[in-house]
Every structure is written in structure tokens, then in C-alpha cells.
Amino acid sequence: CKYDVFYNYVKILNLMTLGIDAFFPIIRGATTLNEAMDIKNAQKNMKNTAEQVFRLIDISSLME
Predict the structure, then answer these.
(1) Which of 28, 33, 30 is CA-nearest to residue 45?
(2) Residue 26 — φ and ψ, nearest 5°?
(3) N or C: which end of the chain has fewer CB within 10 A?
(4) What are the tens digits of pLDDT across the range 15-49?
(5) Are 57 and 63 in contact (CB under 8 A)?
(6) How far apart, in whole angstroms, are the C-alpha atoms of residue 15 and residue 26?
(7) How far is Cα 59 from Cα 17, in angstroms, rounded to an integer?
(8) What pTM did the predictor assign?
(9) Four-point Cα dihedral 28, 29, 34, 36, nearest 10
(10) For 7-11, what is the mean pLDDT?
């Protein structure tokens, strides 16, 4: 729903005013709660997101 996307965008903007500069999704697509909470899926999702965070940190050093 377009309203949900706009509402979530506004929430993100509000968090940015509190000093949070970046957001990384842990779940990359539509999934059920049970699939998201499955321990193997959760571990894989966290690993993938952590990798993306550290890739960003790594390339940010090239911009200095």
C-alpha cells in the first residue's frame, strides 16, 4: 500500500533527525514471519546484512 511506504519513509526521516544516518534491511524481500524467524534464515540474513555494512565501511575509507 502506498500509504504504508510513505508512513515508513516519514518514520525513517524522523529517526534521521535523532542522529541515525543509515538503515540496512535484514530481510531482503517478502517473507512470512515464520520464515523470517527460522534460525537458519535469520542467521543467513544477519550475516548478509553485516557483510553489506562492512563493505560500505570499507569503501567509505576510499572516499576520504
Answers:
(1) 28
(2) -90, -35
(3) C
(4) 878 887 788 888 888 899 999 999 999 999 999 99
(5) no
(6) 18
(7) 25
(8) 0.65
(9) 0
(10) 76
